[in-house]
Amino acid sequence: MDRRKFLKQSSLASSLFMVPSFVRAFEKVASNKLGYKRLVIIQLSGGNDGLNTVIPFRNDLYYKERPTLGIAKKDVIKLNDEVGLNPSLKPLKRLYDKGYLSIINNVGYPNPIRSHFRSMDIWQTATDSDAYSQSGWIGRYLDNYGKHPYSAIEVDESLSLAMMGENLNAIATQNPKALYNLSKDPYFKKIHNHHNDVHLSEHNLGYLYKSMIAAESSAKYIFETSKTVSTTKEYPNNKFGKQMKTTAQFINSNLETKVFYTSLDGFDTHVNQLKKQNKLLSIYASCVEVFVQDLKDNNTFKDTLILTFSEFGRRVKQNASVGTDHGTANNVFVIGENLKKQGLYNNMAGLSDLDDNGDLKFEIDFRTIYATVLNKWLEADDNNVLNKSYNQLDFI
Amino acid sequence: MKTKDIQHLYRRIGFGILPVNLNKLSKKSKKVIINDLFITSKTVTPLKVDITEIKKILSGAVKMNSKLDSQTRSKIQKLDKQKQIELNVEWISRLTNSSEILREKMTLFWANHFVCKDSSITYIQNFSNTLRKHALGNFKDFVNAISKEAAMTKYLNTKQNKKQKPNENFARELMELFTLGVGHYSEEDIKESAKAFTGYSHNLQGQFVFKKHQHHEGEKTFFGKTGNFSGEDIIAIILEKKQCATYICEKIYRYFVNDTIDKKHVNAMADVFYKDYDIENLMRFLLLSDWFYNEEHLGSKIKSPIEFLVGLKTVVPIEFKNSKQLQYFQKLLGQTLLNPPNVAGWKGGKNWIDSNTIIWRLKLPSLLLNGAYISNVKKGNRDLEIERFKKKHGKRFKTSVNWKYFDSEFENVKINDFQSHLLACDITTEAKKHLETLEKVSKREYCIQLMSLPEYQMC
């Protein structure tokens, strides 16, 4: 199905079933002016301990399984009578209070894998746990809907598998100026000065020239567009803060980029977890809060959706080194201005029904989240991108 | 043998050939040259880094019959990490300097066929050397050896494959990726064959262990045959299918000949291979066939990052002073040896190229060899700013460059003949026009200019 046909059909379908007709008429006009929807993905690498992130502080099992690792009830930032946030997530609580945060609990996939590489691979390629793919889910989105490499940007030095398509790959940059400088040697310009795409064959060498020309113009476009704005916001001085700052700059300069990919590493907390995880969560939350404010100041937050995930959660029971081992289901954060379901999307798992390893059983397949974001936010045919049909959720 | 054919041969079974050696070989016949390739690759030289410290700890634990405590484990993990980098460095240096060049290139090919990764240096080093050992041997022995490697039983969970609770991961990939390709088996075949591999495991030092009590004794029905099959039986039954020979030959063809399959030629290869699954015979047939040297294959493939790096090092030897930078280099270009993305491996071909990798590939020769400088001065002019430029921009990588070696290798090559040595394909008209307006300042500067062309990415 081509994109236009799909959009027609999907808007028809949704409007027919859900919205009264006068709203539908309004929607038709507004959809062109709705602004440019963007998705920001934040990958927490290493397997963030979800149970010490969103805490079931009324559950005795939680404290029983984590006698020296559980976060004391008095320290938990309470969201309701049962559930609270890690004390390092104060900035996130403020977003929660404004209705900008939706927490989806127990997200995972069938037959979970507890290896970092493989599980991250599954999250990035959106395959079943017994299948392997050489393209990522954002990459396949690009194959179908991207026009340029910069249609999706990884704010890093090189591309993750998530960003590689069958035919089109995203571009990676954490420093647009450096990338531009690297690409613009006068020698390169001269050797393809008069090349135009017509002359370039589909053969490998032609493909190299095309890629070279596209890369140069992408690097130039990203640099020259993004330098038109500079933020006045003070971001925390760390690598993740820089990534978020650069991302905000990209968005606020109206770069025609649909997806941004960022990551924060270090969540593999087998030993002495508390201090380590608290620090990382604090970095995460404080950077995201500034980022949201930065976008709000530029009126771009309403068109931005932020998705945070980790490759797996961790075991319910703490280990002998006051840490946790690799587990399964975990929470996913969705941050945005007009969420349909604010706060807790679903209940946390009871801790009594665990699998053979003592890990949580998943309730929501992460690919239903992808499908929802693709369909409802990026207006894409999720079947095409995920090669399978998944249920839609209603957080947006 | 024609020099152009020798160059093509060496670009595919190695990483290129230098003028002095090319000159020597051009006096020999094709038969002799190819025969020599197999003779020099008869020997197998294992790739090894020093892991005595880890071995000592492990054998100590075995003697004590105790499990490792967390402190020892984290010590081993640290050593593992460090040694993996060493092994990676050693591997790249091996590719640059080995006389067993065909064997090493085949090993590289198999490493992206039997894809595996493991955090233990002991297991992954063994695995790498099993690839090396069987690279030109018998394919059936090869598959059996792979199925019993500690790293593989971990990577594809054969270790967790027990009669009470079968794990189908290995059985599935054995057929999907290692032997037959998608669509040539049923889900039932996977289930049944998984039972045959139950009990495959390894000990702490990485030796194969068959755990009889975990093995499924009993009938399995696989590809229409019924019996109490072992893992080895299953592999034998798979190899009875001609599809297996065809699948492997397609892969070899794409790797050594052309991204686009020629069915007729692949079938001819499969006929040879199916007879006895002897990899050496297959490669001999391939390299001796006339069509291997057809015009349309010359310079038609995009180099892998490792081919790009090793090829460059072959022309101008460079050493990274900091091995972390060599890792970084591989990461930037999208291929770090010992660290494949998943069991499907690197897709290769056009997929090596994205906006970032093309920018790096074009800029790296000048960055590594020449302080980031690519001469762009018009005929009759001189660039007086060269040294200042290099000082300012040339600090990215810490390398030592052996230009003297290049000088002596190319001493008797006229500068106008450089192209045929450095580039595998013709230069596009535009690039050629531009090059003709430029001053050939020196052999070294001209070498950098040629290496900075997209054409240099072809092999």
Structure description:
- The complex is a heterodimer of chains A (396) and B (459).
- Chain A has 396 residues and is an alpha/beta fold.
- Chain A folds into two domains: 1-34; 37-175 and 233-386, Alkaline Phosphatase, subunit A (3-Layer(aba) Sandwich), CATH 3.40.720.
- Chain A is built from 13 helices and twelve strands.
- In chain A, the strands form two sheets. In chain A, strands 1, 5, 6, 7, 8, 9, 10, 11 and 12 form a nine-stranded mixed beta sheet that branches. Chain A has a three-stranded antiparallel beta sheet with strand order 2-4-3, with no helix packed on it.
- In chain A, β3 and β4 form a beta hairpin.
- In chain A, α4 (90-97) crosses α11 (273-297), α7 crosses α9 and α10 runs parallel beside α11.
- Chain A is globular.
- With 459 residues, chain B is mainly alpha-helical.
- Among the domains of chain B are: 138-240, no CATH class; 305-457, no CATH class.
- Helix content of chain B is 55%, strand content 4%.
- Chain B has a two-stranded antiparallel sheet.
- In chain B, β1 and β2 form a beta hairpin.
- Chain B starts with a helix and ends in an 8-residue tail after the last helix.
- The interface between A and B is large, with 48 and 51 residues.
